[in-house]
Design brief:
The chain has helices at 15-24, 61-68, 71-74, 152-169, 189-207, 213-245, 249-267, 311-348, 352-366; strands spanning 47-53, 84-92, 105-115, 134-135, 149-150, 179-180, 183-184, 272-281, 284-293. It is an alpha+beta fold and 368 residues long. The chain has one domain. Helix 1 crosses helix 4 (152-169) and helix 1 crosses helix 8 (311-348). The two termini are 15 Å apart.
Amino acid sequence: MADGDIAPASSDNDHWRVAIYLFTGIMPPARGTVFKDLYGNDGIPLMTVEINDSSPVPSIAKLEAINDLSWRTQNSGWRIEKTDFTVPFYSGVNRAVGALPVGSEVKMRKARITLLGTDTVHDVPAGGVDMGGRFGAGSRLMQEGFKGWDSRPLANYSYGSGLALEQLLNPPCDTHGWDNNGANAARAAFLERINQLGIEDRNYADILPFATSQPQADNYLRTAKRKFLKAVMNLHATWSIWAHYRGNPLRWLHDILLDVTDDVWNNNITKVRHKCDSRSGRGSYSGDDHHEVKHDGFRASAGNYGNLDDLATWKAIGEEAIRRWQKCAQDNLGEAAKQALIDAIMHSSTSPRDLHVLTTKNSQLLWP
């Protein structure tokens, strides 16, 4: 991992970042750092989590649990429309437990979750381009001590980089001076090389006594520019699909939370029944109103992540969401970026030495 990376995010082998810099002149944030300001309480990435007791009335606890899970249908795939929701579960009377036998008394508890990361007007990111935003510390909507969050580095990496590619595909087909969230563009290496080739070829044609030299040079330049734009178009097309359906890390977190709540429903909530043990004495009745495990297989854990009562479990869930987002970025953006670099270099260079100059010189700029 590179210096400054915050695990599990990593800047290693980031071909997307290299390609964006060489194509557009934009320096995207290092991938291993884009989540550094998207942590909630207790080191939990992408969300804040607070765990507390549910309703004091056991007879309606299961009904509350069903209502609490309505966010599962409000959030669908990449379209994250609800960022504050609850995951209900039964746990031991004395809190954190794993498995419990039939007859054990349990109590309903809730993990209250707030997802982090919206755009500049605090709308919910729901696929497509998200420009990122900030949420300040000290809000009464958050837990005491919450330091706020900033999703702009992530937005610059996931979305701003693709928007920079669009600048090359639309007039004036240049990124020089273009600004996105404070990320200014320098001269793009490939465009500079094509322009330099034009100067070199014209100077070369001036000193050669061949009538065909200049047309040949012009044809070469047209071919180089056409291949360059094709490489940019292909890379942009891959990014456009990825950004819409997979670029939002909350989508990956939501997928995991769906799996977790499926597991909770099947191995926790449906294993429990409400029970009221009535006792009589001298014409009066009293009841012990509680929940207990009715069926085998009860557990109060979130799969392999840990006990639902433990905040470290929710930290592990957030970290897994980052891993899935990162792998998807590598598999889609990274592979497409490698191919685009190969295509562009093959047609914007006159010798193998140009390949060496473009890759090594600019890589040193990326990783000094």
